[in-house]
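re the bet — no i am not wrong, look at it urself. input seq straight from the record:
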Amino acid sequence: MALYAFAAWLASFINPKVKKLIEGHRDILTTVRNGIKEGDRIVWFHVASLGEFEQGRPLMELVRKNHPEYKILLTFFSPSGYEVRKNYEGADVICYIPFDTKRGANRFLDIVKPEIAIFIKYEFWYFFLTGMRKRGTRIYSVSSIFRDGQIFFRFKNAAKVLRQFDHLFVQNQKSVDLLAGINIHNTTIVGDTRLDRVMEIHNQAKDLPLVQAFKNGQKTFIAGSSWDPDEHIYLPYFSNHLDWKLIIAPHEIDEPRLARLMKQLEGRKVLRYTDAEKMIAEGGKEAAQQMLKESDVLIVDCFGKLSSIYRYGEIALVGGGFGAGIHNVPEAAVYGIPVLFGPNNKKFNEAQELKECKGAFEYTDEQSFAEVMDQLINDPEYLQQAGKRAGDYINTHTGATLKCYNAIFGEQKAKEKEAE
């Protein structure tokens, strides 16, 4: 970890994202000292990045609503999560987690003194967990998922970090079985709290008149969190299916990235979301609506819209499957539309189960993408049933948040009564 911290410091001179991480680390102790006073009762939520934040958010907000006696500390590992949610109103103190060294963990924990710690999904930091165990903090892992080949199941000593948790709320039976194999039995299958958040977002989805005007009653394919490798596969297909409109929400929206995408779309009638917004703001509403209707590609070059945009599609693609991993598949599936994604999806339980029930489909190249799309497009009943299976999966797998909350805070109430 010390080597990692040094490497991050070196990388910060050339990488803007890492630079934000290093700058944020300088303020950690000041932030927690200013936000946490002696006697405060702290519930600490730790997430890696934005996706894990969305997984932990429903539980965090339930604690916020029902337990005003606690202050909530929220920490991030990644700048891509912290920068987006550093002003989130559902937590009292928000900062990065220090690097997991013995000294760094102890300095942080001596200030924070968390009563309860809830780590989301993949976060297993040795010195923080062992330090909290010594201090009597109750520690939980929420929405965690385990796979064959992980270090915990290959090296005996590596499993020590998992033994620090009071309880692990896991996503599936496979995780329970793997943990049992290394003699860890304090587990409960609850599913994925992300699905509860997805359902909340669905129920709060906004009408987007701009997108409605673009769609104009036509069949629409939505590519969410799209990356270059995804675009090299799906764009050629739609150059031969001009009766479909495209909404593309790139994962990154810096100008060089958007310029590459626009180059691939040469010859198409392309409109950027912010350009349409600007036209409307300047009084050109009718002209903007006409341009939206005439365009066949809408590029979403702003954040915060995608979760509501999926409702306007007949089929969705979720990007990232040719990189570190696919993005938020349930965010699209909740609207009852089939979802496509690339091959790096094995770590995502909901993606695997959606594939099994044929509410989602994997593609690896132009040919496999075309085969899936042709079947969906040419068989309207198959398209409808695939969408229904996707929506039904989300509807029947919610409730993980309440299960975790009742277990954690029901136990807390019992301990407080016992102490009285």
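see?? The first helix runs from residue 2 to 11. told u. also Residues 235 and 264 are 8 Å apart (CA to CA). so pay up
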